[in-house]
Write a structure and sequence with these properties.
By secondary structure, this protein is α/β, with parallel strands linked by helices. The protein folds into 2 domains: 174 residues, Leucine Aminopeptidase, subunit E, domain 1, CATH 3.40.220.10; 298 residues, Aminopeptidase (3-Layer(aba) Sandwich), CATH 3.40.630. The chain is 34% helix and 21% strand. The chain has 13 helices and 20 strands. Strand 3 and strand 4 form a beta hairpin. The structure holds ligand BES, manganese (II) ion (MN) and zinc ion. The site of ligand BES has 16 residues, from helix 10.
Length: 486
């Protein structure tokens, strides 16, 4: 989808040539700056009880007298804060995406101007609204005819709005890549598929990609990562993708994404209900690929390295068993008390591997614990960090990107739960505080680093009727990384 600014010219909104005119109304009544033909239509609808000035409420009108565009959609946008504006834009597009409109113009009325943040929010909302999964569903509804969006703005706002649109489009492309990878079922989206996606990014966007095979990982001593994959016939891949847009001497940001392409639980088998959703267990990996794509598309002057340990977690005659002890790349040994706590087992080796890049900071992203879903639900990702400044930056990036997180604790008291009689640590504690003990486990592998961990178990996908990947936290991560660009 293509987004551009369009200057608010002499013919005004009523005279605009467009397939559909979307009017975002940032006011509690018919705004004074709205042209008479449009104001009359809105006034009449509000009087008749067909429109409310409440964020997300819409009115579709066909062939409004005195308006050139055949289709007009009004959408209430509250006070035009990016979140309300996104809600309004999503509701407006829902009204037209199934129709014949190919090109739409979006105006903001009620005294608010287009800013970068508002423009970016618009792109995110529209891109989300027209997304359809079709890869393995030939009967999916046809793609929306909608291909171009023009943002009607004043000359003074055009540069900022244009930059917001550009950022929004890069993020939307990253989100789309993450959604596609995560929505694909486990028999399509394998570790090899993720590696191929990374190679494709290398080709299209100038990334450098290296893929370590099982034997390479064995040589290095990744006993923990290899333990998880040993029950599966699907070859594991350890993917390293680099975007080196910054200065040579600039220490890189390293993102580590959990890439379990299917998590059955292994010998500690999960219950059958909703087990299909464990195809989304590579959501962290998908968000790393999506962020790399967005950052490369922006040609950001920053050094960014994505590391993706990827494999399946399956039960078999060769699978790990509860009680098995393995040696991680760091040299620390781990007693695997529950084979379903596999995410931390692949991440710990990747976090240790990351040290060789001497990162400025390290962020891992993982659909790590059901406990995090219980704690925070589907709205905010769980954030853990050993560095207050880094935590604050990530929280701010999430707020700005409408992809919010919430900080969780890492007190040393929680570490007790990981004690083992047979290894340096166990891979699980008790049920209580499960998201925190998982983070405490990872912290044992990042002592020398500025590190943060995002538990996205609740935010990476939606369950129920709208089941599917969200592409989160690509917006948060992209904002964060762009904030480090020089
Ligand atoms: N991939 C799951 C986490 C998960 C569960 C994400 C449900 C989304 C929804 C992870 O590998 C896992 O199984 N974690 C266990 C940890 C437990 C065994 C300590 C969990 O959360 O139950
Ligand atoms: Mn698991
Ligand atoms: Zn898992």
């Amino acid at each position: 989808m293509d987004f551009k600014t369009q200057l608010h010219g002499a013919p005004g909104l009523a005279g605009l040539s467009t397939d559909a005119l979307v009017v975002l109304v940032a006011a509690q009544q018919v705004p004074a700056d709205l042209e008479p033909a449009l104001a009359a239509a809105l006034e009449a609808a509000a009087k008749a009880g067909d429109f409310e000035f409440k964020a997300g409420k819409t009115l579709y009108a066909h062939r409004v007298e005195g308006v050139k565009a055949a289709r007009v959609v009004f959408a209430a946008a509250g006070d035009a804060n990016p979140k309300s504006l996104a809600k309004a834009a999503a509701a407006a597009v829902a009204q037209i995406k199934g129709g014949g409109a190919k090109q739409i113009s979006v105006a903001l009325v009620g005294g608010a101007n287009w800013t970068g943040a508002r423009a970016e929010a618009l792109v995110g909302a529209v891109s989300d609204a027209v997304y359809v999964y079709r890869e393995t569903k030939p009967s999916a509804p046809p793609a929306s005819a909608l291909a171009a969006v023009r943002v009607v703005c004043d000359k003074a706002d055009a540069a900022e709005a244009g930059a917001g649109l550009k950022r929004g489009m890069a993020i939307a492309d990253g989100v789309a890549l993450a959604r596609r990878c995560a929505n694909l079922p486990g028999n399509h989206c394998t570790p090899s598929f993720l590696a191929a996606q990374a190679q494709q990014l290398a080709k299209d966007h100038g990334l450098k990609v290296e893929v370590l095979e099982r034997k390479d990982c064995a040589k290095l001593g990744m006993g923990s990562f290899l333990a998880v994959t040993q029950g599966s016939d699907e070859p594991p891949k350890f993917i390293v993708a680099r975007w080196m847009g910054g200065a040579k001497n600039q220490a890189p940001i390293v993102l580590v994404g959990k890439g379990i392409t299917f998590d059955s639980g292994g010998i500690s088998l999960k219950p059958g209900a909703e087990m299909d959703e464990m195809k989304f267990d590579m959501g962290g990996a998908a968000s790393v690929l999506g962020t790399l794509r967005a950052v490369a598309e922006m040609k950001a002057k920053v050094n960014l390295i994505g590391i993706i340990p990827s494999c399946e977690n399956l039960p078999s005659g060769t699978a790990i068993k509860p009680g098995d002890v393995v040696t991680s790349l760091s040299g620390q040994t781990i007693e695997i008390l529950n084979t379903d706590a596999e995410g931390r087992l692949i991440l710990c080796d990747a976090l240790t591997y990351a040290e060789r890049f001497k990162p400025a900071l390290l962020v891992d992203i993982a659909t790590l614990t059901g406990a995090c879903v219980i704690a925070l639900g589907a709205h905010r990702s769980g954030l853990f960090s050993n560095d207050d400044e880094l935590a604050a930056e990530l929280l701010a990036a999430g707020d700005a990107a409408l992809d919010p997180a919430w900080r969780m604790p890492l007190d040393e008291e929680y570490d007790e739960a990981l004690k083992s009689n047979f290894a340096d640590m166990a891979n699980v504690g008790s049920r209580a505080g499960g998201a925190i003990t998982a983070a405490k486990f990872l912290q044992r592998y990042t002592a020398k680093q500025r590190w943060a961990h995002l538990d996205i178990a609740g935010t990476a996908w939606k369950s129920g009727a709208a089941k599917g990947s969200t592409g989160r936290p690509v917006p948060l991560l992209t904002h964060f990384v762009l904030g480090h660009a020089r």
